[in-house]
Amino acid sequence: MKNKYYPFLTFDQTFLFFIILVFIAWNFMAANSFASESEATIRSQVIRVVADKVKKDVNDGLIFSGKVIVYNEEWEVRGANGTLHEEIDKSQIIKVAGNPAVIETKAHSQYGKSLGSAKELILYLAADKLELKGNAQLNSKSESLRANLIYYDISTRRMKTKGSRVKFISDKKD
Length: 174
Description:
alpha+beta; lipopolysaccharide transport protein A fold; nine-stranded antiparallel sheet; 1 helix; about 20% helix
C-alpha cells in the first residue's frame, strides 16, 4: 500500500522512517542534556553541611548550631553556628560563625595549604569567594594577612583587604 504523502515509501517504510527520525532527534537531545549536565557538574561546587542541630526558620532558611562543618573537595569550614537561607543546591551564600570560625584549603598548589580564621566566614558559592569578618587572619605557605575584613578568592588564592589595620607578613626570601 502506497502512502499519499511519500509515494516512494510504503506505509511500513514511512512508519519506520518516522520512528528512526524520532530516535535520532531524541539521541541528539539526550546527548546535549548530558553534555550540559556534566559541564554544570564541573563548574558547580558540590558541598556538604554537617551540624549537630538544624532548624528551619520562618523564611524557609536553615539555621545550624553545635559543631558545624561545611566542606567540599577543595576546602573545609568549621564553626559553632551557621545559616543558609535557601536550599543547598540553590543557595548563593552560606554564613558560618564561631569563636573563631576556621577555613582550611585541602588542595595543594604552589602556594601550599591556606588556613584562615575569623569571627564570621561568608562563602559566596557561585563566585567561589570568601569573606573573613572580625579579627580575620589568613595564612598560606609563604604569606600571612591579618585585618578586620579579608576578601579571599578560593580559586585563584588571592587575598585582599580594606582598612588601616592591616598586617602583612611575607616569608619569601629574595
